[in-house]
Design a protein that fits this description.
Length: about 300
């Protein structure tokens, strides 16, 4: 389609909507004779009559109605995109609401908001800390954050963090008093610190993998908690083996306060993604945050 044909289609749609060459010509800032010539040229090119003209009125033919149904959504979308481009000239403003697990909020979202908030004081940022799966549309959130493998297929997903890796850890004192597990099955003979999931209230099954073979283990132990920081404390106190994202415990492993076990059974997995329900035009404030969070691998 060349530029002239696009202009001809816009002229036809204007005449059809106005039902008048006079009003359409005024709206398009052209003459009635030039507009009439444009419509005749379009009809000649398509080989069908698009408008029925009388001395009193103008109405689309059946072919014209079909063309209107084709054109209207496209031109509406173009208008919306042009309006959005105009909005980008203005300073981003408004509210951005995101539901997120605590870990992602601490490690990814909050650092980004700390950078953006001073420079964009017309944006209000709201984080709702929740590890449960939330219907972001029903709860009126702009977006949610989940691990890549947990994002629903009908959502738009933007990667915002690196791959993650789990770590099974215990204190040196615990391992001195108990044999070190060599496979995940050995955990059934150990005191394990369980984490109760807020999603369904059940206990988290520890997920392992080796040579592309996944293995989930239901562990047992004396301690059950629903907060990661308490799980770390329990492990450091020698109360058993814990299973956590490794960035929670890396400093403690380096310091010798915790020891990693079953390292060959915990390969990396997709990290956090920001997800939202549609590719429709994003608000400047939300688009700004998405770009600030977008994960870019270091080369």
């Amino acid at each position: 389609m060349d530029r002239n044909q696009l202009g001809d289609l816009m002229a036809f749609l204007t005449v059809a909507e106005e039902r008048s060459f006079t009003r359409a010509a005024a709206k398009l800032a052209t003459s009635q004779s030039a507009l009439s010539h444009t419509i005749k040229r379009l009809e000649s090119k398509l080989g069908v009559r698009l408008l029925t003209r009388t001395t009193r009125s103008v109405a689309p033919t059946d072919a014209g109605d079909r063309l209107i149904e084709t054109l209207r959504p496209s031109f509406t979308d173009i208008d919306a995109r042009l309006a959005a481009l105009t909005d980008l000239r203005d300073k981003p403003a408004g509210s951005v609401r995101i539901t997120t697990p605590q870990h992602a909020a601490d490690t990814i979202l909050w650092p980004a908001i700390e950078r953006l908030a001073p420079a964009y004081q017309d944006i209000k940022f709201e984080l709702s800390i929740n590890s449960a799966f939330v219907d972001i549309v029903a709860e009126r959130f702009d977006a949610g954050v989940r691990l890549g493998e947990q994002v629903a297929k009908d959502m738009i997903a933007v990667r915002i963090g690196p791959d993650l890796r789990m770590a099974a850890v215990a204190s040196p004192a615990y391992l001195a008093a108990n044999s070190r597990p060599k496979t995940p099955h050995d955990l059934t003979h150990h005191n394990c610190i369980n984490l109760r999931l807020p999603t369904l209230g059940g206990l988290y099954a520890w997920e392992f993998e080796k040579s592309a073979r996944p293995l989930n283990v239901r562990v047992d132990g004396q301690i059950v908690l629903n907060e990661v920081r308490l799980v770390v404390r329990a492990a450091m106190s020698g109360l058993g083996i814990a299973f956590l994202p490794d960035d929670h415990v890396k400093p403690l492993i380096r310091e010798g306060k915790l020891v990693r076990v079953l390292a060959d059974w915990t390969p990396p997995f997709p990290g956090y993604h920001l997800y939202y329900p549609s590719r429709r035009q994003l608000s400047p404030a939300f688009a700004l945050l998405v770009e600030a969070l977008r994960y870019r691998r270091r080369k």
